[in-house]
Amino acid sequence: MITREAKTNKVVRFYQTGGIEVLKTEEVAIAEPGAGEVRLRIQAVALNRSDAIFREGNYLQSPEFPARLGVDAAAIVEAVGLELQELPDVSHQPAFHRDQGPNRKPIKVGDNVLTLAGFNLSQHGVLGETTILPASFVIPYPNQLTPAEASALLTPFLTSWGALIDYGQMSQGDYVLLTAASSSVGVAALQIIHATGATAIATTRNSAKKQALLDAGADYVIVTSEEDVVSRVKEITNGKGVRLAFDSVAGSGLEAITNVAAQGAQIFIYGALAKEPTITPLWTLMAKELNIRGYSNYEVFSNPERFERGINYLYDGVRNGILKPVIAKEFTFEEVVSALGYMESNEQMGKIVVTF
Amino acid sequence: MITREAKTNKVVRFYQTGGIEVLKTEEVAIAEPGAGEVRLRIQAVALNRSDAIFREGNYLQSPEFPARLGVDAAAIVEAVGLELQELPDVSHQPAFHRDQGPNRKPIKVGDNVLTLAGFNLSQHGVLGETTILPASFVIPYPNQLTPAEASALLTPFLTSWGALIDYGQMSQGDYVLLTAASSSVGVAALQIIHATGATAIATTRNSAKKQALLDAGADYVIVTSEEDVVSRVKEITNGKGVRLAFDSVAGSGLEAITNVAAQGAQIFIYGALAKEPTITPLWTLMAKELNIRGYSNYEVFSNPERFERGINYLYDGVRNGILKPVIAKEFTFEEVVSALGYMESNEQMGKIVVTF
Fold it and tell me: B101 or B343: whose pLDDT is higher?
């Protein structure tokens, strides 16, 4: 336990791109927040695949060495910059803060907050005992959640919400196909589909995760190594096919997705886990007038109105007990490298969280 | 000239699938229209690529032998079935007819009409001196058009309208990329883009059709064998990229289209002229949140409300002199087989029409 008087703290940094072996836990000085900034005492960090991609040097942002990493944290505000209450420019602040009008509460010491994607990872990465962040990148979270759960909320649920609800306009009666449904985004999608009254059809490569997917909210689970996806989906949907698909695999599986898609269906591709190239099944696309939409959560996090709609949906769902982040496994900060390695093994169901 | 008293007429039929050599011009008896049907005296038939695909046995409908063919005709109503005025079931009739309310005029002998895609081609194909059609598959056309022009109106313009206007919500200031812009659909798209005040960027393989495309309304023409599509489009759009693409080629060209697409752009694929497979550029799709929409005109012709919106747009455009079908070449009925061969050579710009 580090006390408030400590002058240094431990953070994870790396000096070159590579595998988990490049990561170092280092003792560094605790800095003071500047104008418009806050210092966070980190309580929990949810790991993302993008953490690995950033570390490997393949992310949208390139690391500036020595680089920190980590996006999604739950934390307590430990210090605020002097000018925080009178920020001249809030144009980069998410709508959730900016537009609270008379009820807007400035961030203050002791607040329980979540971090929002979009900041400079090398400078502000949250994987450490403290970090400094621009105040526009933190928001309060519902007190129904533990810090570990809270850290696992935003990225999975906002990513799913953006595709299925905001773009896909999912409603009761829709059939939705999910691939890689045991990922944290997949599990969030299962809950959102369930909350909407739509029907979730999850695919999984082997039967190992079948029961866990059913427990997580899947209405049907198709084991692709044992069952034919096309005939099973036709059977489940009475021949109608699925109106929405939420796919992070692509590759050769896209053909089966288009074959089980209903006329005019929307297929969201938000990942490319398949190793082989993805051939576009043009004739099926044209005959059924299918939409293939490349999707990332960037538009959810960067568009203030959309972000606010998403946060309102999520926080209402959490307060009503309908949505709840699923944590696959918790690790201590001392085990952080093992935690990152475990995430990359793809054995988990839900989020890997490092707690402090 | 065949008089009203003639008992037989010439029609094109085929008895097996294949190339243009399977087509025969035959003298057959003129039939009387049944309940809800009309007999048309054909004046002009616009040829479509789907005529060839149907003849080859690769169309959505399979030919029933002996099979007629041909979709788009301008014609005069020569006879109407006895019960036409009191049809019990108009559910299959396009909205343009069904919903004219007090002003609705029943189809009568002497009307100038166009035929609408969707009927049984083997039985009712329009390539012949007369044909019988359900009355729900004919509509009047604006008298500003010659029969040859009228026959070339619906398929090209409704196809372009459906993608660019109805789905794509094209507006002034949009940049639109067109491939295979010398096709009849491409030429119609150029006119619709021009009418909207958007900017049309057409691509063509060699410089042979460059001037013709500029004359047809293209704001910019990129000759792909001589110029780099990506840098040219960046230059033209001041780095913004195109918000809409209307592509009938796909294949390896899709990568360049996604590279010149603006954030959130819509790419309509309505054909697959390329011989090679179409690899989906997943990362560009996700990074820019692009939509690839498989498109056919089926949804325009089969949805009554959409069809009526499209017809109103087209007919207004024709009456105002803004839209006008472009005829590449006219052939006589005696030259019908040459006409089909010429269409399949891809040398033309606009529609091939057979006149009677």
Answer: B343
Region label for A153, one of left (φ > 0), alpha (ψ between -120 and 50) or beta (otherwise): alpha
Tens of pLDDT, residues A195-207: 999 999 999 988 9
Q: What is the DSSP string of A298-356?
A: HHHHH-HHHHHHHHHHHHHHHHTTS--PPEEEEEEGGGHHHHHHHHHTT--SSEEEEE-
Task: Domain B8-141+326-355: give its CATH code.
Answer: 3.90.180.10
Interfacial residues of B (vs A; Cβ cutoff 8 Å): 60, 250, 254, 264, 269-272, 277-280, 282-296, 298-299
| Distance in angstroms (rounded) separating the CA atoms of residues A342 and A331 | 10
ipTM of this predicted structure: 0.83
What residues contact B12, with CB distance under 8 A and at least 6 apart?
A: B23, B24, B25, B26, B68, B69, B70, B125, B127, B128, B336
- Check CB contact under 8 Å for A299 and B289: yes
Please give the residue of chain B at the shortest CA–CA distance from A273. B282
Structure token pair of residue A55: 């570390």
Give the pair of three-digit tokens for residue A187: 């599990």
In chain B, % of residues over pLDDT 90: 75
Average pLDDT estimate for B306-318: 94
* Residue whose C-alpha is closest to residue A25's, from A41, A15, A10, A36: A10
Give the span between the Cα atoms of B302 and B297, in whole angstroms. 9
| Residue pairs between chains A and B whose CB atoms are closer than 8 Å | 95
Quick check: A289 and B298 in contact, CB under 8 A? Answer: yes
CB contact under 8 A, B60 and A287: yes
Kindly give the pairing relationship between strand A130-134 and strand A37-46: antiparallel
Q: Which amino acid is at B279?
A: I
Q: Is cis: bond before A66, omega within 30 of 0?
A: yes
Pull the structure tokens for residue A290.
Answer: 């299918």
Q: Is the predicted pLDDT of residue B101 greater than 60, yes or no? A: no
- Yes or no: domain A154-298 corresponds to CATH 3.40.50.720: yes
- At A120-129, the pLDDT tens digits run 999 999 999 9
CA distance B284 to chain A (A): 8
Mean pLDDT estimate for chain B: 90
* A225, A208 Cβ separation under 8 angstroms: no
Helices vs strands, H then E, count in chain A: 13, 15
Global pTM reads 0.87
- The superfamily in CATH containing domain A8-145+326-355 is Medium-chain alcohol dehydrogenases, catalytic domain (3.90.180.10)
Min distance B3 CA to chain A CA atoms (Å): 42
- The Cα–Cα gap between B171 and A348 comes to 47
Measured between CA atoms, how close is A270 to chain B, in angstroms?
A: 6
Task: Provide the pLDDT for residue B341.
Answer: 85
Give yes or no for a contact between B52 and B340, defined as CB atoms under 8 angstroms apart: yes
Q: Name the 3-class secondary structure at B141.
A: coil
Where are chain A's structural domains? 8-145+326-355, 154-298
Considering only CB atoms, A286 lies closest to which of B269, B284, B288, namely: B269
Tell me what pLDDT residue B95 has.
41
DSSP string, A242-263: EEEEEES--TTHHHHHHHHEEE
How far CA B262 is from CA of B167, B168, B176, B245, B258, in Å, comes to 17, 14, 10, 10, 8
The rounded distance, in Å, linking the Cα atoms of A47 and A44 is: 10
